[in-house]
Write a structure and sequence with these properties.
- It catalyses: 5-phospho-beta-D-ribosylamine + glycine + ATP = N(1)-(5-phospho-beta-D-ribosyl)glycinamide + ADP + phosphate + H(+).
- It is an enzyme of class 6 (ligase).
- Belongs to the GARS family.
- Keywords: ATP-binding, Ligase, Nucleotide-binding, Purine biosynthesis.
- This protein has 423 residues and is an alpha+beta fold.
- It folds into four domains: 2-93, Rossmann fold; 119-186, Dna Ligase, domain 1; 191-318, ATP-grasp fold, B domain (D-amino Acid Aminotransferase, Chain A, domain 1); 327-422, Alpha-Beta Complex (Glycinamide Ribonucleotide Synthetase, Chain A, domain 4).
- The protein is 28% helix and 28% strand.
- It is built from twelve helices and 22 strands.
- The chain has helices at 10-19, 51-60, 71-76, 78-84, 94-101, 103-112, 126-133, 159-171, 239-259, 292-296, 304-313, 391-402, and strands at 2-7, 27-32, 42-43, 65-68, 89-90, 120-123, 140-144, 153-156, 182-186, 191-200, 204-212, 215-217, 221-224, 229-232, 265-275, 278-285, 327-335, 360-364, 367-370, 373-376, 380-388, 410-411.
- Strands 10, 11, 14, 15, 16, 17, 18, 21 and 22 form a nine-stranded antiparallel β-sheet that branches.
- β10 and β11 form a beta hairpin.
- α7 packs antiparallel against α8 (159-171).
- The longest helix has 21 residues, at 239-259.
- The N and C termini lie far apart (43 Å).
Amino acid sequence: MKVLIVGSGGREHAIAWKVAQSPKVDKIYCAPGNAGIAEYAECVDIAAMEFDKLVAFAKEKAIDLTVIGMDDPLVGGVVDAFEAEGLRVFGPRKNAAILEGSKAFSKDLMKKYHIPTAAYETFSDPEAAEKYLETAKFPIVLKADGLALGKGVLICNTLEEAKEGVKTIMLDKKFGSAGNEMVIEEFMTGREVSVLSFVDGKTIKTMSSAQDHKRAGDGDTGLNTGGMGNFSPSPFYTEEVDKFCKKYIYQPTVDAMAAEGRPFKGVIFFGLMLTPDGPKVLEYNARFGDPEAQVVLPRMKTDIIDVFEACIDGTLDQIDLQFADNACVCIVLASNGYPVSYEKGFPIRGLETFKEHEGYYCFHAGTKFKDGEIVTNGGRVLGVTALGDTLKEARANAYKAVDWVDFDNKYYRHDIGKAIDEA
């Protein structure tokens, strides 16, 4: 098979690495890719939103399967563009990717089908939003309706903060058109857990749980980011929680989308809050998480190509999805100053060390080739990832591997997986 992967981050590197393990695959392309992905795939200079060029490339190279990694093209309708030309593609159509593309849509869906989530209201008028806030209980959560690179969520502790948040999202348009509409929802307390799942329109098979660290600084301080690290499995995601979620959240979501005439095929990422009142949905994403993919895929035993094809063909019920009984931790090495402003173009040293150690991986997020060497090219640069028999062992291994690689302005959190100690 010839496979095309669309995207350029750590998630796409993890997908390419996993696809390369399938005996069914002879050739991998990635558009646009990065310096790490280039080890497994031929990188093609086509941006993820250039649908016509991607489709033309897939036809020209007789690509057997295209895998969409990123949210923007999915929400924009890239799957529809491929299917219109008779091409096989893994990911939800535009009318299903709205599950991530509009928070207002997903909240309304949950309300309609009684899927547990936080109480909320939706606003398109900033004045009405401010008026509502004057009667609200704090802390409260403001969410830009559309895609905002995982950063369009503000937790406000006071009315003043919340009014400033309305201004930031709806008037200053910090997140662009994503802030044309806004969801205001109750602040939930508890542990956050991520569960990624494969879906074929009717059947859902969940992957192993994971837990993210969104804030830039140690102790969950600083600004929200795309994710500073992750571990899998989450010790807080118990069998009891899993049973509840399967019955009241996972299958009901798949059934709700089908009932709405928006059958979902691809990956649904469930962002959950384990509240004192039971698990509730924080958000949906319509693709693999980043860096969730980096800790879940190394633990997955099933051939990923078989799973992708089953999702497309509606035969997921025939797949035995298996994960190893081990643990994995990913620590993101970022450019100092991320997620606001940072310098790029610094040479990265020590990458070859990972080849010498089994169970250690370095997934590239923001890298590129320059003058024959690999240099930094983004806010999140690398995802240093390690396996272990236990979470504590995996974390120790990952932090050991952090020292193998270096670049100017290297920054990372020192407390990834600290919650493991409290489990």
